[in-house]
Predict the 3D structure of the following.
Amino acid sequence: MTPQCANCAQKMQILILDDEPIVCKRLRPAFQKAGYEVETFIDSASAMARIEEKRFDIIITDLKMKGTDGMHFLARIKEIAPDTGVVVITGFATSETAKESFRKGAFDFVAKPFKLSDIIDTVRRLAENRRAGPS
Amino acid sequence: MNVIHGLKEFFSFWSPKKPTLPFSVLFKKFRSILERNNRLLELMADMGDKLGGEYVFDSQYVLDISEKIGDLVFKLISDLSVMTQNENVDLFIAFERIQNDIQEELAGRRAFPMTRPAVLLDELNGDLNEEVGNKFANLGDIRNTLGLPTMDGFVITTRAFFDFMEANGLPKHIEHSLATVDIKDETAFEGMCKEVRGRIFEATIPRHVVSNINAMLDIIGGRRQGEPMSFAVRSSAWGEDSDFSFAGQYESVLNVPRKGILQAYRRVIAGAYTPEAWRYRLHRGYRESETAMAVGCQLMVEAEVSGAMYTYAPLSLEKEAMVISAAWGLGPAVVGGLAESDTFFLDRQPPHRVISTESGRKVSKMVMKQNGGTAWYDVAHDLQDRPCLSAEYIQRLAQAAIMIERYYRRPQDVEWAFDSKGNLYILQSRPLNVQPNQPERHRLYIDHASLSAQVLFSGKGTVVQGGVASGKVYVAHGDDDLKDFPYGAILVARYTSPKYSRIMRKARGILTDVGSATGHMATLAREYRVPTVVDTGVATKVLKTGDEVTLDAIQNVVYEGTVKELSQFEITQEDVFEESYEYRMLRRILKKINPLNLVDPHSESFKAARCRTFHDITRFVHEKAVERLIDLSENYQKHHDRMPKRLQFVIPLGLVVIDIEKGTSSPAEARSVTLEQIESTPMKALLQGLSESGMWETNPVAVDLGSLMSSFTRTFSSSLAGPEDVGRNLAVISNHYMNLHLRLGYHFNMLDAYIGEALNDNYIYFRFLGGVSNIARRSRRARFIAEVMECFDFLVEIHGDLIVGRVKKMSQERMVARMKVLGGLIGYTRQLDISMISDERIDLHLADFMQRIQTLTEVSDDAPMCELRPKDADSHPGR
């Protein structure tokens, strides 16, 4: 029996960038289970290169990383594909960084550590938003 | 005159110091200690929560929170030093010692905790893989954590390996050989291998290693009480049985007598340098410096039948089957594929039905020879075609293997044996690399499956232990003795309770309506890695006994029916959270922070120098701060800026109240306060419980002489005075807070509670220490108190006379009801032990107490709080 995959074709594409491998390792299976197509990166350069070649619906990124920091990454995403939904995750949550992320176009800002169910809910909301979006 | 002065001087070292700071400053320090204390307990609980698997955290989190905790503990000690005006050198030393250990862990410098050349299996666990290799570290988990049967033994550590190799100049020699030999030249490479092995066979084992091995042999010999010993000597190398399995690459020597151990050791070490093993390492990119061979020596099982078991049969995953291969005699027949064997396919789902049996003709079997070594014997005719495992053996084996699989969250390849008495032994277990045939299709399955399955509830409560479990629901009622709890069921209960620890090995998963993630049950669920979610609020309402459900305690969802794709996904995903570096680091650091060793403040060991964890320090400081405050408020009243007030109450508690903030409505300068003027939520509730329950027994209880006499043989600390002694009691309160020290007769109660609007801040900590009467009566009293408290959701620990109960994170209304219960308990137990003349009295008192407290504890929430009595259980479930 082959699975009846109702939404195979239009599966949401997610890119996750965090330089701590554990975060990618935990998020990938969780989002796969929730029905997303997931790619993960632990260095910003590769992630940066990837967004140049492929469009993602949703991007989850850390802020403070070695190499390119999350703010630059966020800015670049919004240049290439302004309608990509971005969720910022960080262990250094201050109201300043939160404000700046929102100004740069982030959909939400989630402080680490977070519950798996919380981040999945956030992404679900984002996905619904996009479906009902201005276009 | 001089004599008196001298005496004064002499005693001044222990008499409390007269404060040189204003009381307001000292009191500020006391409050600061309480605040830091609470903050610390929260942070510790926060760290504990992260082990559950519901949270995503990174190493930065572990670094940050460890730093915060260290900082708070340091300040806590400093506050105490100001309060008590002494230097607390012992405390600071204890602090530095723990802090240094934590720093080392954080820096990734795992100081080899095990520098001994040999260690008993009893001391091993998964964290010691570097010291004893993966194979025996795993066996340590299986033996010591899961409690599955394994043979006694010890491991000669990697430390011994390095010492052995170094002492014989082998590392240099090997390095030199590798550099000079062309490893592509087969003949030259094999020549090098042979030469190295030859040197190992001739090498001297350092004296300290030999004496350690002998010490281990003596211990095991002692336990055998003279029975002859023979060992299986096996490799346990770095990397072996992990991602790179090295399966079958290294050598094992079977049936080795005591005198042959050293030579068998050399032989196993030499096994690392066979051409096959060495090539395998080179091929995998292992460096020579990464070769480390621990060697396990375990008593042989006189196996009647043995073999291997895969918890996932090498069929397509969808088949959901396990497979056992078995043959008569010792294991190598099956494991090494040396003889015909039987094959049994079983259902992975309980009750693990046998799907098919293929019986081979087993003409010969491997057995132990009298003087060491093994031999092949003929199998008796009538046994050759008979399946060598009974249904019962298969069942026991399947349950043990699934338990191991659940623990590692990986399919397992388990080697096992049954002896002639029918005892099962696990010989080893290694992860089995199962990959779905078509990973892409597998992934489609998973999201399709989880998206199309019916969700019963999700996101409710707190995940205690992650993982996925499918099975039939078993709803446990309040008075259930759980004797009928079926293997493989999912326990659903209204409350968490330590009593569920008895079904922890049988249960696939646990769901409760109410309860905390920090209790005894939670600790055990984590230990056995049973997927568990507590505090869901709805589990007993939604689920009935017999329902088939799937609990995904990673995403925290409960699905209707068996969603087998979820379990498969769980078990085949790349990384297991519990095996991640971050998880293991967090767990190791928590061990330096969380366990509480100093429990009884009246015991000899309640000393600063005995503090082994930050929790110990926190506890110690709290105790000393309260002691100091009592002393200050009694002896130095003129220094006060907050007037202590005497409580005017129908019951003579002799209680002095210090109101920190909005705890009373009586005028600041008043010397007394009435119940009506108490504004502190916890205090008001407690006093109501005491007076309104009518539990304060005013009739004198007859004291029988025997029990009174027996009490004299106990040594009382000075704070436990006679029954006439009331009046040295103190409560520090605010509108939501109360810290109470109440001595009533021989009973000493300590209560620390916060009850406010925010559910998460609410907690009650209750400590009861009693005395008088004999051990039996005291323990009956302890059981009575524990039962009442457990019934009201307290997590209860009993240490001799000392009972500690904790409850937290409940609504204000429920917390208030529980304070009333405690009020009732304090009154009721005042002289209870005297009348506890038989076990039946416990039930009698329980029934009496519950009835009297009932009207005081009704809350508007959905359920009665306590279901202790059978008649309550009748009304369950489906309220």
